[in-house]
């Protein structure tokens, strides 16, 4: 009788494992979307652009599993949702390969682990969506 109850408990644990394994990925994405929405609160999206000038970029940060946010000197925020965004972690170091004076759609990012400095993935940039305050143009 004891063997059956342990076997049954193991079956419950194993059968529930796939659902539990998917949940953290979903919650990371949901948290990322919520963080991005909070950051863009009150801003208006503009027409997506294929490239942004590096001379206008003042800084950037990664939102887990969601996007890279670039801040420009003029106050415009550019949101990029790269192919492979699910690989993004806030503590990644993005190494961008730039050919010229602009970051462009399809440019490749190498993602390095901040602690070990080892490559843990890559992503290809998507379109840059500008966000500005209402009434302001980028």
Describe the model.
Helix content is 28%, strand content 34%. It has one domain (6-132). The strands form three sheets. Strands 1-10-5-4-3 form a five-stranded antiparallel β-sheet. Strands 6-8-9 form a three-stranded antiparallel β-sheet, with no helix packed on it. Strands 2-7 form a two-stranded antiparallel sheet. The chain is built from one helix and ten strands. A hairpin with a 3-residue loop joins β3 (57-63) and β4. Mean pLDDT is 81; it is low at 1-22. It has 138 residues and is an alpha+beta fold. The chain starts with a helix and ends in a 6-residue tail after the last strand.
What is the count of structural domains? 1
What helical percentage do the residues reach?
Answer: 25-40%
The best one-word shape is globular
Order of helices and strands: HEEEEEEEEEE
Q: Strand portion, in percent?
A: 25-35%
- Number of helical regions: 1
Write down the overall mean pLDDT. Answer: 81
Main sheet: strand order = 1-10-5-4-3
Poorly predicted parts: 1-22
Secondary-structure class: alpha+beta
Q: Kindly, what is the distance between the CA atoms of the first and last residues, rounded to a whole number of angstroms?
A: 72 Å
Biggest beta-sheet profile: 5 strands, antiparallel
Characteristic terms for this protein:
globular; alpha+beta; 10 strands; 1 helix; 138 residues; three-stranded antiparallel beta sheet; disordered N terminus
Q: How are the SSEs placed, and which strands pair?
A:
Blueprint: H1 2-39, E1 44-45, E2 51-53, E3 57-63, E4 67-72, E5 77-80, E6 92-96, E7 102-104, E8 108-113, E9 119-124, E10 128-132
Antiparallel strand pairs: 1-10, 2-7, 3-4, 4-5, 5-10, 6-8, 8-9
């Amino acid at each position: 009788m004891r063997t059956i109850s342990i076997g049954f408990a193991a079956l419950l644990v194993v059968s529930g494992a796939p659902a539990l394994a998917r949940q953290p990925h979903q919650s990371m994405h949901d948290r990322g979307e919520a963080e991005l929405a909070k950051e863009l609160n009150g801003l208006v999206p503009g027409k997506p652009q294929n490239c942004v000038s590096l001379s206008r970029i003042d800084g950037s940060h990664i939102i887990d599993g969601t996007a890279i946010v670039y801040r420009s000197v003029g106050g415009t925020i550019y949101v990029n949702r790269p192919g492979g965004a699910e690989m993004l972690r806030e503590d990644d170091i993005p190494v961008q390969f730039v050919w010229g004076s602009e970051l462009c759609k399809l440019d490749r990012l190498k993602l390095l682990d901040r602690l070990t400095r080892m490559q843990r993935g890559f992503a290809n940039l998507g379109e840059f969506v500008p966000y500005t305050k209402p009434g302001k143009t980028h």
